[in-house]
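FAQ: What does the model actually see?

It sees only this:
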Amino acid sequence: MKTKPDLSFWKLWNISFGFFGVQIAYALQSANISRIFATLGADPHSLSYFWILPPLAGIIVQPIIGSASDRTWTRYGRRMPYLFVGSLIAVLVMCLLPNAGSFSMTVHAAMIFGLVALMFLDTSINMAMQPFKMLVGDMVNEKQKGLAYSIQSFLCNAGSLAGYLFPFLFTWWGISNKAAEGVVPNSVIYSFYIGAAILILCVIYTVSKVKEMPPKEFEEFHGITAEEKTQKSDFFSLLRHAPRVFWTVGLVQFFSWAAFMYMWTYTNGAIADTVWNTTDPQSESYQIAGNWVGIYFAVQAVGSVIWAVVLPMFKHRKLAYSFSLILGGIGFITTFFFRDQYLLFISFALIGCAWAAMLAMPFTILTNSISGKNMGAYLGLFNGTICIPQIVAALLGGSLFLLLGKQQVNMLVFAGILLIVGAVCVAFIKETIAHQDKK
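And it is asked to produce this:
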């Protein structure tokens, strides 16, 4: 079996560059969905239910994309067609979603329109995002995977930084951050427009620069035999034969992604209440808080970029993973005590440490443990460890909100506790290396 050659830094960069644009779209969704639906008239008690659709779309779409692309080959490659189509759909929906309140519809109709648009947006983002993870598994050897996923993490956070800051910057440049009741401000609408343009340009760059391995070469580098090619593996069979690390990392993922689901859902309402002393989505202070959410998430992204540089300095990957999640947990908990808008920079910088580890560690550990034949399918299934906790968190969010005193900041404290539990669960991970890159 042939061993994959080392790739230059710029080849590794090009493989993941389109992720920058995809992550801008994801950041705009993450930072603004609760704000958009609150502006349309959603009640805080039901706010988490609006977040069920995105992970539900992901858990359905990503395994299908992964499995289908494992068995696809076109003149444009194996993963690239799915990446390009997903991006085109995302661009279209990004131009529609923030206008949910601008089409003279009733509140109920605007909500339905927004939900449908959100479902299509997250489905298309998932369709565009998954191929980047697969490309690293396909083309990068075991020795360079840590670097490759670190580059992907850097581009991910750089894209997040841009997406999070757009509404604040547009407001600063004089674009209105206020709108009629039930209408999303232009500062948010224009942010989605610019994000859509950057997304398609970044994806075009990656598609034009990266050439995937032809099927025969792919099989040689991944040790796929003629017998394995004829074997049909359904999702249930793959899960039954999944390496133990798939499940142990998945346990950590459960607590980690549930925590971040509550951050995306409740940060806007929490800081509007604790720092700007308002719970009224129609007030100017609430919309100012909405812009500051973008700044805090940008601080999280910067913290994540810096921490991604620190992570390789740890001798033990599991220690780095666990410690990062603990720092993130502390960050969430401090949001309860910090009532100054600038002190919260500390909280979100610490949260960024957890985010850096969540982006790089799980996929490095997992792709080292699986062979190439079902790489896409396994990565698609592994996305369930991201989507399922978000679905569970969204379903339980309304009840927890009532249980925790109807205070949105208490949901962030609970998120911190979840991250610390996830850090403890890192101890159950036992890393393994698949045969594919052994000499």
